[in-house]
Fold this sequence. Notes:
The structure holds 2 protein chains of 2 kinds.
Chain A: H1 2-12, H2 14-48, E1 56-60, E2 68-69, E3 72-73, E4 83-84, E5 100-114, E6 117-119, E7 124-126, E8 133-139, E9 143-146, E10 152-155, H3 157-160, E11 165-168, E12 177-181, H4 182-188, E13 195-199, E14 206-216, E15 224-228, H5 229-236, E16 241-242, E17 244-249, H6 267-274, H7 279-289, E18 293-297, H8 299-340, H9 343-351, H10 356-394, H11 402-427, H12 432-437
Parallel strand pairs in A: 8-15, 12-14
Antiparallel strand pairs in A: 1-17, 1-18, 2-3, 4-16, 5-8, 5-13, 5-17, 6-7, 9-10, 11-14, 12-15, 13-14
Chain B: H1 2-22, H2 24-58, E1 66-70, E2 82-83, H3 86-92, E3 100-113, E4 116-133, E5 137-139, E6 159-164, H4 165-171, E7 178-183, E8 186-196, E9 205-209, H5 210-217, E10 222-223, E11 225-229, H6 234-247, E12 251-255, H7 257-299, H8 301-309, H9 314-352, H10 362-376, H11 389-393
Parallel strand pairs in B: 4-9, 6-8
Antiparallel strand pairs in B: 1-11, 1-12, 2-10, 3-4, 3-7, 3-11, 4-5, 6-9, 7-8
Amino acid sequence: MFLRLVADSFTRRPRRKVLTAAALSLGMAVVTAALSVSLDVGDRLASEFRSLGANLVVTPQADSLPLEIGGVDYRPVNAGAYLPEADLPKIKTVFWHNNIIAFSPTLEVRVQSWTPQFSPASATFVKPAANGDALLIGAWSNHDVRLPDGGSFVTGLKQTNPWWSVDGAWFNDGEGECIVGSNFAKKNAVLIGSPLYLEGSVAGHGLALKVTGIFSGGGAEDDGVVAPLSIVQQYLQKPGQYRKLLVSALTKPEDEFARRDPKAMKADEFERWSCSPYVSSIAYSIRQVLPGTDVRVIRRVAEGEGTILTRVRALLWMVTFAALLAAALAVGASSAASVIERRTEIGLMKALGAGSGTVGFLLAAEQLLLAFVGGGIGYSLGIILARLVGLKIFGVAPEPSLLVLVAVLALAAGVTLIGSAIPLRRASRYEPAPILRGE
Amino acid sequence: MGALGNGNRAMFWRIVRRLLGANRGRLFVILLALGAGAAVTAALLNLQVDAKRRLTTEFRAFGANVIISHKAATSWDSVTTVNDSIMDAISKSIGPSGAEATSFLYVVAGVRGPRGGAPVNAILAGKGRTGVHQVSVTIIPPPTNPDDPWYNLAVPGDLPCTLGVQLAKQLDAHVGDTISILISDRRRTCRVSSLAETGGPEDSQVTVMLDFAQRLANLPGRISDVEILVPGTPKQIDEYVSALQEQFPDLGVRPIRQFTDAQATIYGRISGLLNFTVAVVLILTALCVMAAMTNVAMERKNDVGLMKAIGGATRRVLRLFMMEAALLGLASGVIGAAVGIFLSIWLGKQVFGVAAQPRLIVYPVAVALTVIVAILSAYPLRRLAGVRPASVFRGEA
């Protein structure tokens, strides 16, 4: 009988029920979209901040001090220490290897450059006067790193310095190619595709490269040349060695706890510290796998990122909470309305001898059914909405999450029940007779 | 005609009053829905306007994002410097308020640690005055507080300096030690007042006040660059950079793309997200009121039937309900939006640590939006136009 009553209520006035369910689905769709986006957005924003580039820098421990002014290192050539490139795959074996999204070793040297000029008189290419000093940076563009576990990891400057814009193409790692900075290209009239000769005081021999692109990074590197690391190593006669490593890692904003000295921590504290992806604990674990290095946090990037990320996350959750509240109110009001309009029916049921409890139970069952149907439809709609929003704002759609489904169904059920509880309580006080008389 | 018009108007308002007062419970639900919607909308709108502005100030954490230096890049043969009078010129430029300009002089110097030994080559950075823009840039004169030894050359004893951690390690120097700095035959001692660890070039520098560095390097009145922290939206930063470039055609003005580009992306993402949420809340409010109004439409069939039976034109009847909705929207908008603005002040405090400034423009916008939403969501009442008086009186639903 109970089920029949519920079924009857749905079939008898389908339009009314569809309306309530529609309101519910729309409300829940919005909740789903807001929740999915905010659950996903934390991670998404963290990776967005990686467009700031590396937040860790690795240098040899025994290095001489860099004498850098405006990005130009005044250190004499050959001064300082080098690190073995062969150790690099180990970085992807640290506990937080999944958070390390890019790294790129670099080797810098000061060179003289010249572009051969065609001399019509002798019909040959001649060497003009040198263009002057330039900075040659050896780096990876898109290097395939073989990992110890057999996998591979593609990384390089493209990933660690995402703000570089390249006109033309990046060089291929291992080839005799290079990209030149925009200032360098302008000053020396270098075009894409033209050959470039470099020589320095290092080994007394030159290096011929083909220019594949012109890049702009907005720093001192715009006056330099970037070539594959292996080519620069050969040229410098430092095979398999690099000078500086930039690491870009996804981190958790640092708090009080993160800033404590790991050496002064108790065993359990240390474990908790090293199991949180703080930039300092990632630096610590990299130091463990790369002996003889200094791993420093680039404070300017890491701290700026930390502050803004914390703020924005709080803002997002607050906004999501506001959307939840508004949705709950909307759904609650519509279910309250759906109970109010059924006063006559309630009166009749009571006149026929149904207790307030039975009536309440019946209506609650109906509302719950509606909540699950509406919530389910709302969830599917919300996922589509979240995809649209995610694609529009972040360019990537958030993954549908089971957690959101559970939260949405629970919220739908809770809100409809609370929304209908208030009119139901009033309904339980109704005297059947006046209602049936139509008063 | 006039009397009839007056009578009609009085009747109109009387009916509106009665409609509003007919069902207190329902009135309360609608008012609550609209009011809550207005509050959340106003809070989010205010927070949105404020958050966008606040976000640009948060970007300060990244430090300077525009550098002005000699057009010819520094090369190995010569360290290029510019006249420090450009600081005064910058002060006359119009830029986003809150911009900070600091002048620096960088030279290579020998540094000898407290334990003696051969001097280590390091960069000596002379840090000059900082100007903070309010409306345009104002240069704050160096503090003349005699207790601040950083700026006061007259304080007896050694001048303070900040030592980068890597240099400190090499020199085996600690806070409080005295180190000496040599450039050719000039030599001065200074006391390490603090250590700096930034992960950047500062780690291997020794930083002193600009005057000290200029004297030691024998470069009076010269600086290497001016580093400017420009807050604001990406557009404002771009405009300021072009304005500066126009003002200093002989100098190189370049934005640090690493930071300006990232700021632009992040700013775009977050403001998009905030816009989306405001739209969502408006839709939800409309939904909420529409649900309540559907209910109203059902209940009012009898009233409408009666009105039509005694000669009320459909349009006039509908106008009554529109007016009712508009009044409801106005009342709840006025109260809700005020509550919302107070809410956003509190929310702003929670998120940014600083109370959000109430924006006056937000209030009328939120009220207007609420009224529009209320009228639009009275759409279900249109169904009443189709009511046939006879069937209503016969009791057919």
